[in-house]
Amino acid sequence: MEKAVNEGPHHEVRDGVWSGSWVAERLGVELAGDDRLTDLLGLALRRNPKRAHLLVSNVLGKHVPQSPSVVHGHGVALGRRVRDLLGDDEARRAVVLGYAETATGLGHSVADGLGLAPYLHSTRRPVAGLAPAGGFEESHSHATSHLLLPEDPALLAGDGPLVLVDDEFSTGNTVLNTVRDLHARYPRRRYVVVALVDMRSAADAGRLEDFAREIGARVDLVAAASGTVRLPEGVLEKGQELVARYASESAAERSPAGAAPSWSLAQSSAPLEGVADTPLSGARGNARPAPSGPHPDDEGTVPYATRVDLQWPAGLPDGGRHGFTPAHRERLEAALPGMAARIADALPQGARRVHVLGFEELMYAPLRLAEALERSTDAEVRYSTTTRSPVLAVDDPGYAIRTRLAFPAHDDPADGPGERYAYNVAGAGFDAVVAVVDSAADTPALHAPDGLLARLAAHTPQVLLAVVPSYVPKTPPAPERPFMLPEPLRGPAFSSYAPEEVGWLLQDLSDVTLEAPTEEREEAIQSGGAHYAESLPVEYQPSEQYQALFHAALEDSAARIAQAVGVVTETVLAERSPRPVLVSLARAGTPVGILMRRWAGYRHGLDLPHYAVSIVRGRGIDANALRWLAEHHDPRDVVFVDGWTGKGAITRELAQALTEFEKSDGITGFDPEIAVLADPGSCVRTYGTREDFLIPSACLNSTVSGLISRTVLRADLVGPHDFHGAKFYRELAATDVSVTFLDAVSARFPEVADAACAQAGELLAADRSPTWEGWAAVERISEEYGIHDVNLVKPGVGETTRVMLRRVPWKVLARAGAGSDLDHVRLLAEQRGVPVEEVADLPYTCVGLIHPQYTRGATGADGKAVTV
């Protein structure tokens, strides 16, 4: 048999029909652009609220089995183009970054073509003791689903080019989010974006260009083909109806014996309706009947696969999860022929068609094993991998996903169990399937009767299992600790609060000039020239009219706030600890922490300790503050307190930071669950209310928070053994209403005590599981208003007020009919010339939108002008 090795673009046309014609004919979807698009892509359908169609690559090796030399060759060719673009000197300073799970193998192959640069891919698999060097959010997820975990912390810290590799460049959101996160940590002058296909619209292409100008960096794009997807009006609804009809027919046509139809839908939110296991029409080779099934061995267990000992080189990483260097590549190249020979020896005699099946993020090692096998045998070798992505399968030559195997996850994923899939493998006439997994995935679930190996064994005469050792990086030693951390700062020397009300685990930066004009800060933050915690906004000085609104709001809402304080405090005392240590997240959480302390004293005679600590989005919680707390209290008694939730960013930040702290310091017991006064975003279990109403402490800045600034984290001011910093604005004492706010709320405790205790009892018996409604709403608003960055969408009355006081607002979305809770927001909007847009069915009372493309003369972290 003549085999294609290192050939150019290749597409196996089935029955002479393009594998996107089925969707194109029914939905009117068109691919416009390069002539090669239909060679590279097919189309399928999925259930998705934003997009019905799915672009399916014929050369990626994920959903469609393909010659491994073709898959690797496409990545290598792109990598060579990047090397030509950069030149050898810049290529040696570059780092290649691929995206999990789909592009891990492609990114590796690009790094092979580049030849001189190390490779890293994002991952969903956290590793104990290894702190992330970055991460980014994946759409429709309320958790950080992509982590960057290089074994060498310096891998991403250089200033050479960063080459970002994804299979498809559709809107650019993922790349923009990644660059935004990494540029804030490790700024560099040049980025190269690589994709098999560039399918952006003109507007999305313009966004990348604008973003590059904003951060003052060069961003190049390299793609094998480019074009756009033309969607007729109503395509989303039509696609959803089509998917729903096929799902319904699938359920109706399933036989009593459980036989599956030739197509079915895999939904991410529900069990599978059926499994498309029938032979592919026109598949190359003869589809063989399913074997009679494996028989129990001597120990009574059923082996669904024969193991192959690869003799993987000791210490060689299984892929780029923690970094893969050119030296690693040389070791792999040397070992591949021997490992391929061991697989070949285990194949059934006379096998003509062999499939090598990789495993989710583990794409590269199976790909290279398949390529080596292709070179060393006469068999026709195909390669693809399993995936998390649920897709409709239709047995039609004009459809890209012909069959689907479904099975439970078998690697104990951090985000919980779920369905996994292998597409276009069932019924393809393979004489043998070689499943390649890492050792973390070689679990009982893999070998179970409903597991992957059993599912494969029903469709091929021989299943082989090759296990690659999961590479575990050496964890860095715990940092040396200072002999003694300073004692907390207290009023009146630091803050206008009484000394017993709160101890501040901060350092006093009152003598440092940190303020910058709002417009300059906004430009620096959005351009990546500075992190928001590296400077302070100029303190807003309220007008007499605004101050009058504050006092009126306090009078109207004091009882409502008092009841919420009682509810959350009673819940904490009942569930968390009878004598909790309150630790408020400075500064919005500090007034709430003081009120909770006062309630515990009023209702139960308790004198609870209360401290305020700093937490910074993207940087985590102050680790030195945690160390001090662990030295002076039992971490299990610590309850973190905040004012309110918006979309839940700080909730997630705290959970991730505490996980990293436990790994680095070995100190356990801190509970990441935050107690808040108001939880309109439905992000926590412990709250006083989930209503989105005006909390007067959100109306002002330091003058309602003990005259303390927002916290500061800047490398030249905060050393490794220092607490984060903040300023005490003593000069604003004349307008300070911090104690006035606390006293007004505390005075209402007696009248709400019974109602608060009764409400707390009801909540304790209820299901308070977070729904993350706020996060979903923020994602929707970000896309609907063309912002494409959830960090610029601030939901809720409190967060909207912060936007008006500290950032450059673009507009305010107000729930239709919202009343006096928004009086102060309307006044601020009028003073700043910001439009207020009423919106029906808004899940929050209001949402503040930060200007998404603010550019002006900006200052960076060093106070100097940013060059753009």
Compose a concise summary of this entry:
By secondary structure, the chain is of the alpha/beta class. The protein has 22 helices and 35 strands. Residues 40-227 form the Orotate phosphoribosyltransferase-like domain.
Task: Give an overview of the whole structure.
The protein has 22 helices and 35 strands. Helices cover 32% and strands 18% of the residues. The longest helix has 32 residues, at 544-575. Residues 1-13, 139-144, 251-301, 521-530 and 855-868 have low confidence and may be disordered. It is an alpha/beta fold. It has a six-stranded mixed sheet, sandwiched between helices. Strands 20-25-24-28-29-30 form a six-stranded parallel sheet. Helix 3 (68-86) crosses helix 10 (364-376).
Strand and helix map with partners:
Blueprint: H1 21-27, E1 30-33, H2 37-40, E2 41-45, E3 53-57, H3 68-86, H4 88-92, E4 95-98, H5 104-114, E5 119-121, E6 134-136, E7 146-148, E8 162-169, H6 173-185, E9 190-198, H7 202-215, E10 218-230, H8 235-253, E11 263-264, E12 306-308, H9 326-346, E13 353-358, H10 364-376, E14 380-385, E15 393-394, E16 404-408, E17 419-423, E18 432-438, H11 444-447, H12 452-457, E19 463-468, E20 503-504, E21 507-508, E22 515-516, H13 518-527, E23 536-537, H14 544-575, E24 581-585, H15 589-604, E25 610-613, E26 615-616, E27 620-621, H16 623-632, E28 638-644, H17 649-665, E29 674-678, E30 686-689, E31 725-726, H18 738-746, H19 749-764, H20 773-784, E32 793-795, H21 797-806, E33 809-815, H22 823-832, E34 836-839, E35 846-850
Parallel strand pairs: 4-5, 4-8, 8-9, 9-10, 12-19, 13-14, 13-18, 18-19, 20-25, 21-31, 22-23, 24-25, 24-28, 28-29, 29-30, 33-34
Antiparallel strand pairs: 1-10, 2-3, 6-7, 11-15, 16-17, 26-27, 32-35, 33-35
Helix pairs in contact: 3-5, 3-10, 9-10, 14-15, 14-18, 14-19, 15-18, 21-22
